[in-house]
Amino acid sequence: MADAQQPLFAKRFRGFFPVVIDVETAGFNKDTDALLEIAVTTLKMDDQGVLSLDETQHFHIEPFEGANIEQSAIDFNGIDPFSPLRGAVDESEAMKSICKFVRKAQKDAGCQRSVIVAHNAAFDHGFLNAAIERCKIKRTPFHPFVSFDTTSLAGLALGQTVLAKACRAAGIEFDNSQAHSALYDTERTAELYCYIVNKWQALGGWPLPEEPVDEEANEEQSDSE
Predict the structure, then answer these.
(1) Of 81, 58, 59, 69, which Cα lies nearest the Cα of 28?
(2) Which of 10, 26, 155, 203 could form a disulfide with 34 if both were Cys (CB 3.0 to 4.6 A apart)?
(3) Largest alpha-carbon pair distance within the chain?
(4) How far apart are CA 74 and CA 213, in angstroms?
(5) Tens digits of per-residue pLDDT, 85-120?
(6) What is the C-alpha separation between 186 and 59, in angstroms, rounded?
(7) Is the pTM of this model over 0.70?
(8) Which residues 6+ apart lie within 8 Å of 157 measured at CB?
(9) How far apart are CA 155 and CA 39, in angstroms?
(10) Catalytic residues
(11) DSSP-based three-state secondary structure for 31
């Protein structure tokens, strides 16, 4: 597709489609510890290139067979992995639904690959990749290793690296009592990411200025011809 014909979204991140995620887990080891909850928020862009939240999918997930559950982790996030009130679904069902959901949004945006956006992205990205691999999903929309980390972006733009503090610095309301819910944290992270990207544009950092024409080089080229 010629550059002039590309949708605005596809031009902004060189064909990448940012997808915001957050996971709640039963530990820190992506290969052995259970994935208990995941939320995924897609983004949209208006005609002026301004990003905002679009749609969110959210799942409580049953621990996979043989999964390790660290007591300290569930004490921290307050999740009872085996409570029937969670309405948890099989990990494979959640991953297949998320991949389908993201693939459609990516296509609608005219993008070629989806890139994870998360706070401390390596952690969430690792658990997502491990779950996709366990579920033997071959057609994943997600880039296997590229991610956009709002921890680093917030440190640069706002001087804060903790999600709650970064949100408050950006004027985004943050309720600590709702934190450590994948749904709540994903949507706040999405708001933070949109704020930083939009602020960069408002300050004149995007679109990039066109490279100045080198008149002398053009004249030398003409003389040589």
Answers:
(1) 69
(2) 26
(3) 80
(4) 59
(5) 999 999 999 999 999 999 999 999 999 999 999 999
(6) 12
(7) yes
(8) 196, 199, 200
(9) 24
(10) 180
(11) coil
